[in-house]
Design goal:
Blueprint: E1 2-6, E2 11-15, H1 24-35, E3 42-45, E4 70-74, H2 95-104, H3 110-178, H4 180-188, H5 190-198, H6 204-207, H7 219-289
Parallel strand pairs: 1-4
Antiparallel strand pairs: 1-2, 3-4
Helix pairs in contact: 2-3
Length: about 290
C-alpha cells in the first residue's frame, strides 16, 4: 500500500501500490477524486522538505510507507471558514456511569453478579478500544510533527537558497561598484570613440550587399579556396591515372624481355644436351669395335 498522511486533519490515506509507478500529478487527481481535495491546492512533501514534482514518478522519492509516509498539505484549508475536525473524533461515553450506578442498586443475588461481570467485560473492551484509539492519535500526532518538520526543512532550504542568491547579488554589486570609475570613463569617451571610428575609411566593395548578407563578403574567398583545393586533388588523380598505362607498358616490356632470355637459355640447354648425347654414342661405338 502507498501511504499519504494528511497533515491538516491528521488522517492517514492509503492507495494501491500501482500509484507509486505513476506520476505525482496522477496521485493528486486520485486524491481529488476520492477525498474531494482540489488537485491544485495539494502540496506533497517527503521527510527532509523535498517537494514532489508533478512530472516525476512517485517511486522516485523514498517515501510512502506507514512509518515514512508522503505528507500532504491542502492550501484550500487556509481559505476555509470552518476548519476540518481532527481525525478520528473521540466522543466520551457518559452512559457508563449510569450503568454502574444501576448495578450498585441491585440486590445481592446471583443475577446481580452476572450483570456486574458482563458490565465489567464491556468496560474492559471499551477501555481497550480507547487505548488503541489513543495509540493511533499519538502516532498521528507524531506524523503531524514530522510533517511540519518537513515544512520547516523546506523553508530552511528556501531561506538558504535565497541567502546564497543575496550574497551573490551583493558580490556582483560590489564588483560593479568598484569598477564604477572605469565604466564612467568608458561612457565619457564614447562620443570620442564614435568620432574616431567614423573617420576610418571603409572600401565600397566591402559595403556591397552588407545589409542583405551580413559577413557574407568573405564567402567568395572561402569558395575560391575550396575550388582550388578540389582542382588540385582532381589533378593529382588524373596524373596518377595517366601514369598507369606507362607503368603497365613498362611491366609488359620487362616481361617480354624476361621471356626472350628464358627461351634463349632453354635453346642452349637443348644444344648442350644434344652434343653430350653424340659424344656418348661415339664412346660406346669405339668400345664395341675394340
Amino acid at each position: 500500500m502507498l501511504y499519504v498522511f494528511h497533515v491538516d486533519t491528521g488522517r492517514m490515506l492509503t492507495f494501491e501500490m500501482s500509484k507509486a509507478l505513476e506520476i505525482v500529478r496522477s496521485l493528486k487527481e486520485t486524491i481529488e477524486r476520492h477525498h474531494g481535495i482540489p488537485c491544485a491546492s495539494i502540496v506533497l512533501l517527503v521527510s527532509g522538505g523535498e517537494v514532489l514534482q508533478d512530472t516525476q514518478r512517485v517511486c522516485n522519492y523514498s517515501a510512502g510507507t506507514d512509518t515514512n509516509p508522503i505528507y500532504m498539505f491542502s492550501k484550500s484549508v487556509l481559505d476555509a471558514r470552518n476548519q476540518p475536525a481532527p481525525w478520528p473524533s473521540i466522543e466520551t461515553d457518559n452512559d457508563l456511569k449510569a450503568q454502574v450506578d444501576k448495578c450498585l442498586e441491585l440486590p445481592a443475588t446471583y443475577n446481580t453478579v452476572v450483570t456486574r461481570s458482563l458490565l465489567a467485560q464491556q468496560i474492559c473492551e471499551m477501555a481497550k478500544e480507547e487505548a488503541k484509539t489513543c495509540e493511533t492519535l499519538i502516532h498521528e500526532q507524531h506524523l503531524q510533527q514530522q510533517g511540519w518538520a518537513a515544512v520547516v526543512a523546506n523553508m530552511e532550504d528556501s531561506v538558504m537558497e535565497f541567502q546564497e542568491r543575496v550574497s551573490d547579488f551583493y558580490r556582483r554589486y560590489e564588483e560593479h561598484r568598484q569598477r564604477f570609475t572605469e565604466h564612467m570613463e568608458i561612457l565619457s569617451a564614447f562620443d570620442h570613440d564614435l568620432k574616431q571610428l567614423s573617420e576610418i575609411p571603409i572600401l565600397s566593395t566591402l559595403m556591397e550587399n552588407a545589409a542583405s548578407r551580413p559577413f557574407g563578403n568573405f564567402d567568395e574567398a572561402y569558395v575560391d579556396a575550396g575550388n582550388t583545393a578540389n582542382s588540385t586533388s582532381s589533378g593529382s588523380v588524373k596524373t596518377t591515372s595517366n601514369s598507369e598505362p606507362a607503368t603497365a607498358a613498362a611491366v609488359a616490356t620487362t616481361t617480354d624481355a624476361e621471356g626472350t632470355t628464358s627461351s634463349q637459355g632453354e635453346e642452349k640447354a637443348v644444344a648442350l644436351a644434344g652434343s653430350g648425347s653424340a659424344e656418348q654414342q661415339q664412346t660406346v661405338s669405339s668400345g664395341i669395335s675394340d
